[in-house]
Amino acid sequence: MDKENASENVFVQLSLAFRNDSYTLESRINQAERERNLTEENTEKELEHFKASITSSASLWHHCEHRETYQKLLEDIAVLHRLAARLSSRAEMVGAVRQEKRMSKATEVMMQYVENLKRTYEKDHAELMEFKKLANQNSSRSCGPSEDGVPRTARSMSLSLGKNMPRRRVSVAVVPKFNILNLPGQSPSSSPIPSLPALSESPNGKGNPPVTSALPALLENGKTNGDLDCEASASVLTPSCLEGISQETKARMEEEAYKKGYQEGLKKTKELQDLKEEEEQKTESPEEAEEAEETEEEEKEQRSRAKVKEVGLKP
After folding, report:
1. Res 200: pLDDT
2. How far is residue 173's CA from residue 288's CA, in Å, rounded to a whole number?
3. Which distant-in-sequence residues (6+ apart) come within 8 Å of 208 by Cβ?
4. End-to-end CA distance of the chain, in Å?
5. Smallest Cα–Cα separation from 243: which of 160, 185, 164, 291?
6. Looking at the whole model, is its pTM more than 0.70?
7. How large is the angle between the packed helices 152-164 and 247-284, nearest 10 degrees?
8. How far is the CA of 24 from the CAs of 34, 107, 258, 296, in angstroms?
9. Residue 129 pLDDT
10. Cα–Cα distance for residue pair 270/276, rounded to 1 Å
11. Confidence band for 125, pLDDT divided at 50, 70 and 90
12. 208: Cα separation from own chain's centroid
């Protein structure tokens, strides 16, 4: 982290330096070229003056040795001219290489900073894709259908409504159904209420016992309905009976309770929607409600007047 911060600081400094240099780059190039040209011109002038002074003293070189020295000096002056031109070009090359060396360090810092940015981008991109994948999985789980084919939103609503409903105790009408299943430890003839028929399955999955056939058996010996419920539940639902209930019966009872809660939840949501629509209609048309009240009052007044007229016409 410290290296990343240091590289970032150096990158900021270099970017500012390059930006400032770009403003004065043209003027500095022109100034450097002008100085180079002046230097070359000065060297050429000096060499020309030196050559002119030597040629002006040619009358003094009488001996052969002096003549050879004179020719040698002229040749050296020509070589100096060529070397001066090469020197300026070589100086430009050396300056360019030095500038390249300085720029290489700056480019290394910039490349390091770019690599750091690339790593952070790849890391953030990977985290973003992972979060998107998790969000898609959660949305598919929440919106997709469950194993029983019912959407999870409706299922959760029905389960919440079923939890809020009060528990129902076992009634006498459930006893014949258990006896029909031939539970172990109890025979159909040993039932305390043999005349009760089995539960009839309604289309919506609810058990509706026939009331007309069960009333005579329930009202025997002057016993009330609640007493029979208590006795039947105490005599029939023994621990052996509860242990003998098969898994199919439990699954059927759970399915019936779930369907009942789901249907009640749908009914309640429908009632809430109807109430909202009625409230919206009331809020949308307050003038119509006032007109209806006025018409009702006028009808009442007309009826009262008609009654008064009828009373006045009677002898």
Report:
1. 40
2. 52
3. 199, 200, 202
4. 113
5. 185
6. no
7. 100
8. 16, 21, 83, 93
9. 93
10. 10
11. very high
12. 49
